[in-house]
Design a protein that fits this description.
With 304 residues, this protein is an alpha+beta fold. The chain is 42% helix and 14% strand.
């Protein structure tokens, strides 16, 4: 498969960085992701990531600092500041073993819940920008508005319009600012040191301060849409509560706090799915239709 110049250059940069860490490097390269918003390559035990073209270095650098200062929660970077490669910011990381998508029964829901609780209880070690969750949801909706017409588009946009302004990135987030990951899903966990070290959170692009319930919203939305088994949701929520996570009460109904973020993540995921289906000229698959159906059921959140 042909490679583009950025991928080639990033692969070479990852190799050079790996060889500074391990002179007897076993040498093995792999492309872990290659998307418009991120290109990630691995060489032996070193990972290099080219961040999205519009990434602000003034925001990324304190996010790297935070990861470096919380190495028992976040995977620490190998360098304290980003480099520049072909006008893209590049960061370097140790390799960690990701969650196996082919083994859902081994998904580390307890680790995810307890790591999030510890993150949310920890004061930000350096000043940080707002967590980017609502901004990413707003971006997904904006891309849907720009896409070709589809019968489901109005359904998704109507659900979006029912959300409060803060969840649409149109107003400051409410409550006391809390250190948040901003884009929590199981792909954001790795074992480090590889292959069987403790689970740590990765990907600091959306890290910041904001509403901690947002970090629970994706699994909450999947559960509400019927995409996450109740037992897995219970494992995750119980672990979060047992670790004294502040986003929801220690017992009782968590949904008054989760409702708005879960609705926002449902809309975001539906908007992304619909935009991709339109771009590829295909019908919605079963999961995508479930997300659209969930948007169709949404009225105004309680207490709006």
């Amino acid at each position: 498969m042909p490679t583009h110049p950025l991928l080639t250059a990033l692969t070479a940069r990852a190799q050079a960085h790996a060889h500074t860490r391990t002179p007897t490097c076993p040498c093995g390269a792999a492309t872990l992701a290659d998307r418009p918003d991120a290109t990630v390559v691995r060489h032996a035990d070193t990972v290099a990531k080219a961040h999205a073209p519009d990434t602000d270095p003034a925001a990324l650098t304190p996010r790297l600092t935070t990861a470096a200062r919380l190495p028992d929660i976040l995977l620490p970077p190998l360098t304290p500041a980003p480099a520049v490669l072909d006008a893209r910011l590049v960061t370097f990381w140790p390799y960690g073993v990701p969650v196996d998508p082919e083994d859902p029964d081994a998904a580390p829901w307890e680790a995810a819940g307890s790591l999030l609780a510890r993150l949310h209880r920890t004061p930000a070690p350096t000043p940080l920008p707002p967590m980017r969750g609502p901004a990413k949801a707003a971006g997904a909706v904006a891309r849907l508005r720009e896409a070709a017409p589809h019968p489901a588009t109005d359904v998704v946009l109507r659900a979006w319009s029912h959300l409060p302004a803060w969840a649409r990135a149109e107003a400051p987030m409410p409550g006391a600012p809390t250190l948040c990951h901003g884009d929590l899903h199981l792909g954001q966990l790795v074992r480090h040191p590889a292959p069987d070290g403790p689970w740590l959170l990765i990907d600091v692009d959306d890290l910041g301060v904001g509403v901690p319930a947002w970090d629970l919203a994706r699994p909450a939305a999947w559960y509400a849409c019927g995409l996450l088994p109740p037992e897995d949701w219970t494992r995750f929520l119980t672990a979060y509560r047992e670790a004294d996570g502040p986003a929801v009460p220690a017992d009782g109904d968590p949904w008054p706090d989760l409702d708005v973020p879960a609705r926002a993540l449902t809309v975001q995921t539906a908007a992304r799915a619909l935009t991709k289906a339109l771009a590829r000229g295909r019908d919605l698959d079963e999961v995508e239709q479930l997300l659209v159906d969930a948007c169709a059921r949404m009225g105004f959140p309680p207490g709006r």
